Fold:
Amino acid sequence: MTKTVKIANVIIGGNNKVAVQSMANIKTEKVDLLVSQILDLEKAGCDIIRVAVKDENDAIALKSVKKQIHIPLVADIHFDYRLAIKSVENGADKVRINPGNIGSEENVKKVAECLKYYGVPVRVGSNTGSIEKEFLKKYGKNEVSLVESALKNVSALEKYGVENIVISTKASSVPLTYKAYKYLASKTDYPLHLGVTESGTYESGIVKSSAGIGALLLDGIGSTIRVSLASNPVNEVYVAKKILRSVGLENDYCEVISCPTCGRTEYNSIELAEKVEKLTAHIKKPLKIAVMGCVVNGPGEAMDADLGIAGSKDFCVIFKKGEVVKKVPFDSAEQELISEIEKIEKLL
Structure:
């Protein structure tokens, strides 16, 4: 079990739930636009938000942003140690830095003292573009060099008494990311921030993130996740939530299952499944609804579903826990299913 780290009102690590993160893509000094985006991310289920701090205006803007949002605010800093200090002074709940690129050891010491004074945690780590040269030369570009580089950054802060640390070792390669986090988990008990960096466009990014993050979560590794997509950040949160649901780490939602359909399907079950998923997206309690293509396998394959529908040649059947409760014509099947969903929802 990992240590715990408190980020404002969110605690990660230990037995706490895996927290979902995203990163805003609006310049931080544009406070109104940024706050609007963060509020949208909150509605989508984001637990922690990170923003880029590129200059002093961004750092100062954190104070105004923090007053208008409800989730922890993380400042992402590179190269200038003064921005890390300024961000903490303006209310950042956590900072993400790379001790190796903020200058001299004296600069690292100043940041460490600031973090300790304000009680603010920090994320450090490495990715394939920031591996320390000494480790690249010794090990090559692999999981060992990635992890050893990250741990060197950790020790640089530990030297000055910083203990509230979260670590990441991201790569754009899924196999390398997986091996790096497995190796890292064997070397430390700090909470780990999971992600596949530079995972690509929307579709390829979903596949790579799901494979890499999902595999690690199934192995019990990871305290917080960020799905990196070249897309609206809200989509990152939606995908992250679905990953957590798929690996069984989030259960308070309505799960809609459906078969891929085949030549036996007599009605548009795909369209209905999509409608049901949207209709039930707001439900925050465990519920399983099945939209199956045919009655040959439908009720049996989905016998654990609280409610389901399957098609036949001339009608659809509504079933609960595998037992058929009524037969309905095709033209009223959708409304019948929705009516049953509404009945169940009233009892939740």
